[in-house]
Amino acid sequence: MVLHTKIDDGVLLITLDNPPVNALGQGVRAGIMKALDSIDQDSSILAVVITGAGKTFCGGADIKEFGKPPVGPSLPDVLLRLENTRVSVVAAINGVAMGGGLELALSCAHRIADPRAAMALPEVKLGIIPGAGGTQRLPRLVGVKHAAEMITSGRKASAEEALSMGMIDEIIENDLVAYAINLAKGLAGKDRHPPLSAIEKPADWDVQWLDAFEKKIISKARGQLSPVKALEAVRASGEVAFAEGLVREREIFAECMKSDQREGLIHAFFAERAAQKAPVLDGASPREVKLIGILGAGTMGAGIAIACAASGYSVKLFDTNDDALRAGLDRIGKTFDANVAKKRMSADAARDAMARVSPISSLDELNDTDLIIEAVIERMDVKKEIFQALEKIAKPGAVLASNTSYLNIDEIAAATSRPQDIIGMHFFSPANIMRLLEVIQTKKASMDALATAMAVGKKLGKVSVLAGVCDGFIGNRIFKKYRQQAEYLVEDGALPQDVDRVMRAFGFAMGPFQVSDLAGLDIGWHNRRREDATRDPKERYVTIGDSLYDLKRLGQKTGAGWYRYEEGVRIGAPDPVVEDIILAAAKENDITRRKITDDEIRDRILFSMINEGANILEDGIAQRALDIDTVFINGYGFPAYRGGPMFYADQIGLEVVLDGVRRFAQTDDYAWRPSALLVKLVEDKKGFSSQ
Ligand code: 3HC
Predict the structure, then answer these.
(1) Beta-bridge partner residues of 90
(2) Does residue 390 fall inside a structural domain?
(3) Is 361 exposed, middle or buried (0-12, 13-18, 19+ CB in 10 A)?
């Protein structure tokens, strides 16, 4: 049963009951239609209340139906019928109302909500637009400006914000459904509220504002079509009559539904959720975590402490250096203050979170913590020493995690007597903002230690992905190939601004050289020095980054790196000094620079990532291709509408990728060794989706 109904003193209560999120699948749509039929047939029904079972009102259309042949009744038809029903309908929004769920509420005469409810039309995030009247009804209800902003961003409004916008009529603290039934009883027999379709056009209709807003959306969307298409539909709400607006909305919806971008975004949606349920952890139970110890109060440690304390964990923060500890606490306090100023957090919540962070000056004080996250300098000797101390101090069952980005955690674990408790939790900087968390599975890690890290990640609001031990894990190992190709391309004939432009056009927020300038060229330099001892002499080495480092051009922080930065400007300008260094490096290595096309730049960078992704799958570092996609979308700015590097590879065809790898191998057969898995999949005519 996906929906149930009951009549209470003339009020028909319709409860959507389709776990997990009461999505509007075919059964629910048919159920609503049947309930609406009963209103016509039963004159004792005088009003209606619609609500959702559990903690969700409705998660919207059933995304699993996308791409399959539609089976009626369609949602727009159900909602038109609902809007024109003979009695008043009250939506009792008991939790989130997303997409079609909010469109359902907009088709009711009254909307009341629980204080914890939230509302959004998030369709653009799935590569589509609201397709059941949302783009026509919401602007008529809250004005075109609020509606355009909500619909093109897909962001959620809290119940309080929804009330202030006029999206809902009231917030009800207790017993929402009982209140709704009483409200409906009061409406029984009275003239019903005119539907939103009766409003001619949005009250604040403003073409000039829309034109300016459209320019902003196009630039913000970075090649993603759905926000721009959504605005086109919103415009119809003021340009044509309601019925015609619905037709336009439907046409645009259908066009988006057919797009590759929709496929990419839906893949990203399900991949993100599947990544967090690693099959090897099926049946493992997370250990209880209330108190977290963090070692190291630098940028990383402080960022992790902010994320933990803001999510309700108590934190003990340790640093060997008192000044560093003080500076870390200061950074945490300032971040919470800034969050309050930006209204991301209430002053009370910030105060409580800060009170949960206790500085400690002795490692022994970590003896009561449930999870310890080490975020100290990246040196194997230091880390081994720390974990040897922690194994004695930490209580039995405590999980001990290293935040290392590269080091071999198996080696750290082997130096202790409790390797089953030792894992990696690789946060990305700034750890309180970046969504990705790689949970690193060491050889002897117990499944429940790993499940604990995944559960903590979920509570922190992170997207957690399980990865195996290797240099760079999933993300940095593939990113190294990306960076390498970017530098090879520059030596071969492109300029940093060419490479950055092409990758931005592909959908990245920033190109690789902009990222390097932002992060600091010292990071790459230290990595290269770390790799010096083990680098294969056959590997091509580009010295340009080292030359820039030697000139103290460390990126934005020194006013110059791959680009030059004028005082107070964060967008870099191409610099002839850099071009001279590039030309000199090419000459030194006997490289005849040539014109490199945008397609070659894009393909070399992406194919090198895909080939390494295939190696990572073959090595068992990532369990599934979707894990790699999730890492790149959430940690490295890979455009979600491309679905991630492995999904993109499937979309363009693995034979195209393999052909490219073999073609590029003619000039560098070391960098372009085709992955055995890639070759096998092409032979078997399979895609990465089979992995
Ligand atoms: N259809 C089908 N399945 C859905 C779904 C939907 N709309 N929304 C969520 N699910 C599934 C998830 O895949 C997950 O399944 P799993 O347990 O098998 O992995 C399960 O529900 C729980 O989802 P979450 O882990 O995301 O649960 P949360 O409690 O964290 O979040 C939520 C709940 C806020 C509803 C979140 O799932 C969400 O944002 N869902 C997407 C909402 C959305 O985009 N709706 C618009 C759909 S398109 C539409 O309505 C078109 C219309 O205009 C015609």
Answers:
(1) 49, 110
(2) yes
(3) exposed
Based on the structure, what is the number of domains in the chain?
A: 3
Q: Read off the tokens for 488.
A: 């090879």
Domain match, 544 and 509 both: yes
Nearest CA residue ID for atom 29, ligand 1? 21
DSSP string, 463-512: EEEEEESSTTTTHHHHHHHHHHHHHHHHHHT--HHHHHHHHHHHT-SS-H
E strand or H helix at 58:
strand 56-58
Could you say which of 452, 471, 490 is where a domain stops?
A: 471
pLDDT tens digits for 82-124? 999 999 999 999 999 999 999 999 999 999 999 999 999 999 9
- What is the reported pTM? 0.93
Rounded to whole angstroms, how far apart are CA atoms 540 and 487? 10
- Residue 266 resides in a domain: no
List the CATH number of the domain containing 102: 3.90.226.10
Together in a domain, 426 and 546: no
User: Six-digit token pair at 495?
Assistant: 């300029």
Q: What is the pLDDT of residue 569?
A: 79
Q: 295 and 244 in one domain? A: no
Q: Is residue 64 part of a domain?
A: yes
Residue 267 domain flag:
no
Any atom of ligand 1 within 6 Å of the Cβ of 59? yes
Same domain (yes/no): 28, 116 = yes
Q: Assign 639 a pLDDT band (cuts: 50, 70, 90).
A: very high
Same domain, 232 and 324: no
Classify 318 as helix, strand or coil. Answer: strand
Report the percent of the chain where pLDDT is more than 70: 100
How many residues appear in the chain?
Answer: 691
Cα–Cα dist 421/445, whole Å? 6
Is residue 212 located within the same domain as residue 285?
Answer: no
Residues of the chain above pLDDT 90, percent: 93
Confirm or reject: Cβ of 511 under 6 Å from ligand 1. Answer: no
Terminus-to-terminus CA distance in the chain, angstroms?
35
Report pLDDT for 26: 96
Residue with tokens 């336009």: 248
CA 665 – ligand 1 centroid, Å: 43
**Whether residue 492 sits in one domain with residue 420:** no
Q: Name the DSSP class of 673.
A: P
CB of 338 closer than 8 Å to CB of 261: no
**671: CATH:** 1.10.1040.50
Q: 303-356 pLDDT, tens per residue? A: 999 999 999 999 999 999 899 999 999 999 999 999 999 988 899 999 999 999
Q: Find out whether 47 and 181 touch, Cβ atoms under 8 Å.
A: no
Residue pLDDT, tens place only, 422-447: 999 999 989 999 999 999 999 999 99
What is the 3-state secondary structure of 536-571?
CCCCCCCCHHHHHHHCCCCEHHHCECCCECCCCCCC
Q: Which residue type sits at 136?
A: Q
Q: List, edge to edge, every strand of the sheet that includes 110-113.
A: 3-8, 11-16, 47-52, 88-93, 110-113, 170-171
Beta strands per DSSP E along 136-287: 157-158, 170-171
Please tell me if the CB atom of residue 126 comes closer than 6 angstroms to any atom of ligand 1: yes
Told to judge if 123 belongs to the known catalytic residues of this protein, a careful annotator would answer yes
Structure letter (DSSP) for residue 320: S
Q: What is the pLDDT of residue 68?
A: 87
State the catalytic residue, choosing from 103, 263, 438, 491.
103
Question: For ligand 1, atom 13, which residue shows the shortest CA distance?
Answer: 270
Answer yes or no: is the C-beta of 221 below 6 A from any ligand 1 atom. no
